[in-house]
Amino acid sequence: MEAFIAWWASHVMLSPRLSIFFVSMIPLIEERGGLILARMLGVPMWEAVFWCVIGNIVPIPFILWGIKSVIHWMSEHKLSKIADWLLNKAEKNRPKIDKYGFWGLTLFVGIPLPGTGAWTGSLVASVFDMDLKKASVSILIGIALAAVIMTIVSYGLIGGVIS
Question: Would you list the DSSP string of 104-139?
Fold first, then answer.
């Protein structure tokens, strides 16, 4: 992810705000990468958090309401390996979500680990036919949690508090 962020910072000719907005929309990079990019580009913390959170939220409704149709279409065409990968990714996370439900999905989205985040959380919620309102709220809370954690990491607030 760091290599991609560095590449984006040096090659993409968008304003810093648009850059962090778009990077925050990219699957598996999401707001984690957006906040790292924002720090690299010198964007003030609160402004960076705003654009990253908005960028991370934008794809969620499309994933929640459309991913099953996309996976079905992919399965019937020459993209069945990608469809199988997506379904396996969701299935791998089923025990965590089944066990903890709403809060399990929130933590899955909110704790910034590789392979977690709003995209994967939305995929999981859609594939498991979770209630869309509950899933949306859970994912939004998770995005907020991830923003807090990654802001602390990206902007070095831990060092400032400890010093």
Answer: HHHHHHHS--TT-SHHHHHHHHHHTT--HHHHHHHH
